Each structure stands twice: as structure tokens, then as C-alpha cells.
Amino acid sequence: MRDRSRAATAVAAPPNDADEALRRARTAMTAETRTLMDTIGRALCSVAPALAMREVTRLSYATRAAADLHGTATPHAVAATGLLLRHMPRVDWPVPPSPITRAEYGMQLIKKARS
Asked: How far is CA 67 from CA 7, 27, 36, 70, 75, in A?
């Protein structure tokens, strides 16, 4: 009985520094992610820049950029899409007081990719 209580305590232990470092490494912005974000930002600035940016547009551009690089629905494309979406700010959350244009959002992505 004593062994079970020790095992339960070990499982419920708070994360240590190594766990935090691993989590950050998995979610860090890679050079590939920066390049894709810069490419998406430039595309948004050049194709219909005055239209309102929508969440579905953000999802579409991230998926398409990853598929163009790694192939459609491959594990690498799925991972690249996840990293992109993790670093691309959401458009609909929190609800912006006024709509943002595609060009404004593209400039945000370019700035974030370069920092």
C-alpha cells in the first residue's frame, strides 16, 4: 500500500526545469517557421490587402504554406502547420474592436518573423 501512495505522489509531482525546457524547445519558433511566416505575411500584403482578415484565412494560409513545403497531409506538414498556428496570432480571439485588414495582419507576421 505504501508503494502505491509514493507512485501517486511521483506522478502528481509538479513539472521541473527540464520539463519546462523541453516544452519550450517543442514550441520554439524555428528558422523554417520564421520563413513561412514571412512568406505568408508578404502574400497577405500583396494579394487583396484591403480585405478584412478572418480566422479561416489564417488557417488556410498556414495549412497551404506547410503543404507547399512538405506535401499535403504529411506528418512534417502537420507539424509545421501546428508550429505556424502556435505563433500566428489569432484573428478572432479576443474579439478585436475593429476588423484588421490582411495587410495589417501580414505586417504583424513579418515583424514577428524577424524578431
From this structure: 43, 20, 11, 5, 10
What pLDDT tens digit does each residue of the chain (115 aa) get? 555 555 555 555 566 777 766 666 667 788 999 999 999 999 999 999 999 999 999 999 999 999 999 999 899 999 999 999 999 998 887 666 678 999 999 999 999 999 8
Whether the Cβ atoms of residue 54 and residue 91 lie closer than 8 Å to each other: yes
- In angstroms, rounded to a whole number, what is the distance separating the alpha carbons of residues 100 and 58? 12
Spatial CA neighbour of 37 closest among 62, 69, 74: 62
Q: How far is residue 34's CA from residue 42's CA, in Å, rounded to a whole number?
A: 12
